[in-house]
Amino acid sequence: MFGLHSKSNEYTCGLIIDIGSGSVAATIVISDPEEKDPEIIWTKREYILIKDITSVTAPLEEIQTSIITVFLQLQEGLKKLHKLHPKIPITHIQTTISAPWNYIATKTIVLNDEKPFEVNQKLIGQLSKTAERDVHKKMSQNEILQNTELEIIDSATIHITVNGYPMTKLENVQSKNVCVTHMVAMTYKKILSTLEDSINKMLPRAKLTIHSFMYIFYQIIREKEPNISEFCLIDITSEATEIGIVREKALTQVTNNAFGTYSIIREIAALCNIPKEEVLTYIRGGEHFIEAKLTEAKKEELNCILEAYQDKVAELFKRTGDTLAVPQTIFLHCDQATENFFKRQIEAAMKKAANQDCEIHLITSELFNDINTSDTAILLSTAYFHRTIS
């Protein structure tokens, strides 16, 4: 299980690839099991210019180009690695893929009996296979997925409970209740093909693992907040917003829409007829910087843009497929400088969706405030790499 790997005294060098909704990042890290955090040697993020993400064809091609560009720039990182650690090669490549480039489905299988029965590795394996089969069936019936060329990147049992208690080791025990949650994540074959071609040219001997970003997010929060059993995960990237619902510590529902930070920036820039960079300053905390320039009519239009985003998030809350109320504890991941802006939007969206308040935790400032980098996706990905590789 996550976070329970045995320690090793050897350093491990990894290449972390983060494929976001509108950018691709590469980071070289050194993982020392004796240290709390990995050493970040080099990092680079390549943004793409997206005008409209409602059709994935053009943005998908831009993402493929960005993957190639980042690998071309990797030579710079390899030179720095050799200078600092000449005897440590890159042996592992961990890739995370965010919405809208991946699709996630989960299934929970519950086994009850009046009399105690033996819970062992064989039984868990059978329940996991049943859950995986049900997830595949669910995804095969989705019309969007039927018409899209996708490939599985994650298929894992992510949570097991016995008599209501989490099970981290597969030991023979007697129980009247077993609950197994399985997750399957898929992504576009074109992204995988471009990624694998680039790796084969640069680092053909490195071991590649691929995960959905929401899975990484879920695992990190589950480890850092072990006493919280129900919560909501929100990942806001440049062109998408994704929501994950966690019940009894199991990720049960995931949904997203193709509208994020730069989607908002484009709309406000067009409204105010100002550069996108000026809008970015606004959402990073300089509200009056823009509002002072607007007429009352334009301010109303600005509020309409923000309310439209809140409505989109409220709709995501409603269509998670979860019949229960959205958990009031929310962990929000976005660009570090825009956390407070999006915190206000999520609070308003929760009011619209469920007429309730929520407790929002800002991931970077609360959990990673002692690490000197502002790339929050890299922070989460490297933290996961460091904990699982050691």
Helix content: 40-55%
Number of helices: 12
Task: Give the CATH topology of one domain.
Answer: Nucleotidyltransferase, domain 5
The SS-based structural class is alpha/beta
Strand content: 25-35%
Q: Averaged pLDDT, please?
A: 87
Q: Give the CATH H-level superfamily of one domain.
A: ATPase, nucleotide binding domain
- Spans of at least 5 consecutive residues with low confidence: 1-9
By CATH, the architecture of one domain is named 2-Layer Sandwich
Distance between the termini: 13 Å
Please give the number of β-strands.
14
Summarize the biggest pleated sheet. Answer: 5 strands, mixed
Question: How big is the Rg?
Answer: 22 Å
Strand order in the sheet with the most strands: 3-2-1-4-9
Q: Please write the CATH class name of one domain.
A: Alpha Beta
Tell me about this structure:
- The protein is α/β, with parallel strands linked by helices.
- Among the domains are: 141 residues, ATPase, nucleotide binding domain (Nucleotidyltransferase, domain 5), CATH 3.30.420; 107 residues, no CATH class.
- Helix content is 41%, strand content 31%.
- It has a five-stranded mixed beta sheet, sandwiched between helices. A five-stranded mixed beta sheet has the order 12-11-10-13-14, with helices on both faces.
- The longest helix has 28 residues.
- The chain is globular.
- The N terminus is likely disordered.
